[in-house]
Backbone:
């Protein structure tokens, strides 16, 4: 992952006003950690067939991602995967999406990214 992007994302995740969602980039009121990266990248969301999807991301018309990063944002951030994958371990199941959906707070995730951004 690009260091400059990681720093912006970490700063955003540590903002106390951000409401955390699970199992969706955006659920209408809150975001998962990957949804916050979409916002940092300058994208917004719109509702499509009952799910919120990234608005204006190249390729989203074909993919309509609602739970993982669209390819354009993954590439912009310099990430190796669409779900924030890293080395597998039993506690995290090897990705930021799992951490987000299974109890890690935005602060916990920001701390993890700060220490491990190079591997994302």
Residues:
């Amino acid at each position: 992952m690009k260091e400059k992007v990681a720093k912006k994302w970490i700063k955003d995740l540590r903002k106390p006003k951000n409401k955390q969602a699970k199992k969706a980039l955006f659920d209408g009121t809150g975001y998962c950690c990957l949804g916050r990266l979409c916002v940092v990248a300058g994208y917004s969301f719109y509702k499509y067939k009952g799910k919120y999807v990234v608005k204006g991301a190249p390729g989203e018309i074909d993919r309509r991602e609602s739970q993982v990063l669209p390819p354009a944002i993954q590439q912009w951030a310099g990430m190796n995967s669409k779900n924030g994958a890293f080395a597998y371990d039993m506690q995290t199941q090897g990705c930021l999406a799992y951490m987000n959906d299974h109890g890690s707070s935005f602060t916990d995730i920001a701390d993890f990214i700060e220490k491990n951004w190079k591997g994302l």
